[in-house]
Amino acid sequence: MKRNLDLLAGVLLVVGGLNWGLVALAKFDLVAWIFGLDFGETNAATRVIYGLVGLAAVYGATRLPALARGNDRVARLAPQRSAEQRRAA
After folding, report:
1. Range of 62's domain?
2. Total domains in the fold of the chain
3. Cα–chain-centroid distance for residue 37?
């Protein structure tokens, strides 16, 4: 379940990042365009998307300390080298 939430948050953060990059570079709002709106216009659907991107950012920010400590699931699944293997490397 947490892996799915991490994936969803990651996808939403990419969407948000791409949208903000397009806004900065090309004055193009991808989310508004997908919903048939002009730059800067919003409706209920775009506000839901923007809200979900914001929640994904909050979720991602709360996960950063665990990722920095290496307590992420991916890090735990990685094969662990013994002290002897580390000295040999």
Report:
1. 2-88
2. 1
3. 24
pTM for this entry = 0.69
In terms of Cα–Cα distance, which of 49, 43, 45 is closest to 20? 49
What is the tens place of the pLDDT at every residue in 19-50? 999 999 999 999 999 999 999 899 999 999 99
First to last CA, the chain: 36
Nearest Cα residue to 14 out of 45, 42, 41, 52? 52
Number of residues that this document lists for the chain: 89
What residues have CB less than 8 Å from 49, skipping those under 6 apart? 15, 31
Whether residue 24 contacts residue 74, with contact meaning beta carbons closer than 8 Å, is answered with no
